[in-house]
Amino acid sequence: MNSADTSFILVCAALVMFMTPGLALFYGGMVRSKNVLATIMQSFIMLGLVSIVWAVIGYTLSFGTDIGGIIGGMDFFALNGVGMDTVNSPADNLPHLLFMIFQCMFAVITPALITGAFAERMKFGALLIFSSLWVIFVYAPMCHWVWGGGWMGDHGALDFAGGAVVHMSSAAAALAGCLIMGKRKGYGKEPFIPHNLPMTLLGAGMLWFGWFGFNAGSALAADGLAANAFVTTHLAAAAAVLGWLLVEAMHAGKPTTLGAASGAVAGLVAITPAAGFVTPMASIVIGFGGGMVCYGGVLMKSRFGYDDSLDVVGIHGLGGTYGAIVTGLFASIGAEGLFYGNASQLWIQIESCLATWAYCFAVSWVLFKVIDKFYGLRPSEEEEVAGMDVSEHSEAGYQI
User: Fold this and answer.
1) For residue 170, how far is the Cα from the chain centroid?
2) Cα(103)–Cα(182) distance, rounded to whole angstroms?
3) 162-181 burial, b for 16+ CB within 10 Å, e for fewer?
4) Which of 175, 306, 387, 394 is surrounded by the fewest CB atoms within 10 Å?
5) In Å, what is the CA distance from 138 to each residue of 70, 73, 170, 358, 366?
6) Quick check: 276 and 225 in contact, CB under 8 A?
7) Measuring CA to CA, which residue among 188, 187, 185, 234 is closest to residue 386?
8) pTM, whole model, 2 decimals?
9) Phi and psi for 338 in degrees, rounded to 5?
């Protein structure tokens, strides 16, 4: 056990935990005022729900003994054998409990990301059922495939901190959800204006701050690799803000604060799979391109006619996919991409993206359909018009 590494990852786990309340504010500011509490609650509840699911069964399915490259065994069911020493720890420099709780915070925020796609129109009870099942049947297998000894990692796919495990998986589920649930009542006929952009910017800042734990912590040690991931994370986010605002000004006429916040998140998403594999200068290129690519991704929903309320598919889906693919171009630390003589890495990255989207979309689609049949996904039209704060929680975000 390494005391410095242990201290560092304890702090990083706390930073990643902080991202989920940050996401709650980021999303909460973008919805209408009658839905602000319900939207915030959809993220906040994951700290309770997913943490328990993870401790009981999610962790062992992700990091238990490999079964056919597909799923982990039941070695660590209910945290059996997960102790304060390094015995059985996937990171031999960290207490097993610390590795488990660090990974828990990744599991917590991932289903929270999905909620942005169907914000303002999903029953709270349905969300709890879906999220519990999704962690078991989608997130845990994906985590095992990439980080737990499964087939994708063995195949050579590079995903430093969750481009596939977190961002593509959540976006695939988000796309399935918004397609099955359909559009919000009045969508396309009346304005859906963010009610509190300062809240959204505050949330974006919290996400940026917490992302240092997300990416630098994925080095699993207080070392130069963590420092590199910290720097690449920051520079990519900074460049993406500029890239997004540039194309926004060219396309829409003016740069916006919502665009700056969205651009920062787009850059953070894009660099996540690459953070420990690329140099700081490469991260600027990746981030700048990510801001522009994700701006285009947000425009897709108008062209294809689906209602992705808070642009989960356009930012996390397209940004995560873009980031994973360009990792196959720019990787030069610990692995080599196309630009450093290894053309096969690019194809491996593309294969991993296709497999991630196909599996996560298909299983999420089935989960949504089954829950809709036996429980129902959406409230009544009257409840939706009244607002999810009142209809789902008997509360109001603001007193008028």
Assistant:
1) 6
2) 33
3) bbbbbbbbbbbbbbbbbbbb
4) 394
5) 11, 15, 9, 11, 11
6) yes
7) 185
8) 0.96
9) -55, -45
CA atoms within 13 A on the CB side of 66: 17
- Which DSSP helix (H) or strand (E) runs through 227? helix 224-252
Q: Is 363 helix (H, G, I), strand (E, B) or coil?
A: helix
What's the pLDDT at 188? Answer: 82
Q: SS3 for 72?
A: strand
**CA dist 120 to 30, 45, 85, 310, 398, Å?**
11, 16, 45, 10, 16
Mean pLDDT along residues 258-280: 98
Residue 67 parent element (H or E) = strand 66-67
Q: How big is the CA angle at 17 (ends 16 and 19), to the nearest 5 degrees? A: 65
The HSE-up count of residue 76 (CA atoms within 13 Å, CB side) is 27
Distance, CA of 62 to CA of 144 (rounded, Å): 4
Confidence class of residue 316 from pLDDT cuts 50, 70 and 90?
very high
Q: How far apart are the first and last CA of the chain?
A: 55
Please determine, for residue 400, whether its predicted confidence score (pLDDT) is greater than 80: no
Q: How far is residue 203's CA from residue 29's CA, in Å, rounded to a whole number? A: 8
User: Both tokens of residue 377?
Assistant: 């996904």
Choose among 354, 356, 299, 352: nearest CA to 173. Answer: 356
Write out the two tokens for 56.
């009981």
pLDDT at 189: 87
Name the residue among 133, 175, 220, 179 with its Cα closest to residue 321: 175
Query: How far is residue 158's CA from residue 147's CA, in Å, rounded to a whole number?
Result: 10
DSSP letters of 101-121? HHHHHHHHHHHHHHTTTTTTS
Radius of gyration of the chain from Cα atoms? 20
Residues 6+ apart with CB under 8 A from 85: 1, 95, 96
State how far the alpha carbon of 189 is from the alpha carbons of 167, 192, 194, 306, in Å.
Answer: 30, 9, 16, 14
**Spacing of C-alpha 128 from chain mean position:** 18
